[in-house]
Amino acid sequence: MNKKTIVQRFRDWQRDPYPLHEPVTHTCVGCGKTYEGEYCPICGQRYDEGQVDWLALKQDVVSVGGIEEPESPTSFISQMLGRPGYLIEDYIKGRRYVCASPIAMLGVFAGATVIISKFFPTPPSELAQTLAGAEGFIGKIFSWLADNINWAVLIQTALLVLPTMLLFRHSPKMDRHTLPQGLYIQAFMASLVLFCIILRTIISDWVLVFIPIFYYVAYKQLFGYDVWGTIWRTLLCMGVITYFYGLVMMAVLQKEYFDEMPIWVFLGVFATCIAFGAALLFLGWLTGRRSEERRRKRRSKA
How does pLDDT run across 273-283, given as a tens digit for each residue? Predict the structure, then answer.
């Protein structure tokens, strides 16, 4: 099998990992029953099972991993790594048989993160330690988040719902996706981020480099923008969230670093920073709207 064939098969799998076929008549090797479909209604044996050979060995190995079962965790992981955007699109548009519920898988990965962190503890970063050392209620919150990374991931992905809805509002493939769809999109991405954190805990911190790459791939496959259109929107989503995280940190550390500044001056600076972040989101939304208008004009002329 040459490289071109392998690439084409991978692309076909990306677009539809579990294609539906017209029913074909088979004769069961086990009980001799003639039937249509993949499984015998009498004994339950699959249509392509027969004498033991290398193909049977391959099928048994694959079935143990659950890759051929759409609702298995291994199938979910393989699809999230290989076709994240297509998987999200399939699920939120109604093709639910392609994978298990993302909410259920999110619970599985969150639980796995907690269990694995007990066996492979990793010290929090210096920034997390600084924030956790802040006084009062805010310090307790950051200390709790530093010890519960799964909740921190859920909060971060939840915060991405609004920027993603605004910046990808007028996309070629998913024009004006709804709030429930946005929540499911980030549920998928939270599962992927938690899986990367699990790998980081076991392997190394460099695994975290793949998180923004997976976001780019998922958003490109899901929304249908070109390379540059996807890159700047994804970076702006991440940048706005990081920016607002910085504002929260500034508010937390206000007592320590801004004691000499009058409170009204501090509040004015803080409000100006919030307005700047909101303006960035508005400009991104406006750019997407104008690009959608240009696409409509080109389609009308064609």
Answer: 888 888 888 88
